[in-house]
Amino acid sequence: MHRTGELYGQYKTLDQQKETATLGMWIFLVTEILFFGGVFLTYSINRHQYPTAFGVGGNMLDLFLGGANTVVLIASSFTMAMSVWSAQTSKKAWVTLFLIATLILGTVFLGVKVVEYKQKFDHHLIPGHGFDITYCSKSPAAVCGLSEKEHADEVKEVKDAIETEGGVTALNAHAQLYFSLYFGMTGLHALHMIVGAGLLLWLILESRKGRFDANYNTPVENVGLYWHFVDIVWIFLFPLLYLINRHLA
Amino acid sequence: MSENGHHIVSPKIYAAILAALLLFTWLTVQAAKIDLGPWNIVLALLIATIKMSLVILFFMHGKYSPKRTQIVIVSGFFWLAIMLGLTLTDYTTRHPEPSRSANPPAIAIHRA
Prior knowledge:
By secondary structure, chain A is mainly α.
């Protein structure tokens, strides 16, 4: 590990050195924008093609857990920004504390995701052999933890969708497409969160040695940029996956 | 500006952005429950775009970055717009595709 705040030969000033690092981080994030852009494009095209099946699929996600996770992630972006501020103002102990807070919130997000994935598994919504979009509507309300009203709504929604799609086979095929995209997109996002959590862990260990202050905080700033980017991806995933068809439910 | 030339965004601004982001999250959930027909998706994406702009401008310091960095940020969305825009103009304006059901139209078999 190089010494902190050291000026390398190719730069004139520390300021220029830092700006270069930030610019490089942004160029990486542009490639990430396009990477996720391709996934969002795939989603848009398929949603355009099969609006009914995507609507039914979206309404089977847990709005409360998805909404709570959005709040958790936004809060983690705030604590990340605060840790950058703490470094810029040389409040070394606060840098570590805010980094730890960010890591905890990130872990909570991933934990909630695990709960959601497990729920989808129990509800036969994992694409593959056992997939059955009608499972919860066929079973008694308690099986999927639905209230009588929610269950009745779902029965009606699924029945209408089967009619629109021209059969349960077609609905299941297209709903599987939705859930493949759901797991693909949230999985890719979660993978970025896991990488981010690893980076945070590294920053916490470095910060405990008092490495980051007003003179040198490039790693905090750049990991922060990455963390905020991952937050932005979720800002779009949440409405696209959870919200788009709520008014029909 | 701090002594080494970098703008330091104050915690007050960060807190205000946090509050705005939470407010917009609440708003987008409420808006989704109202039937606005084709405008539901437009409104949802509009709110998401506003939230994204707040994160980039303030949390990511986009507003205070040098012009060079700002150009790189904008260019990312420019390429994204090309990818999404050109592809979707194709997909959304195609004529209905022939049926992909298990039984293709009989005429296609005779001609083959």
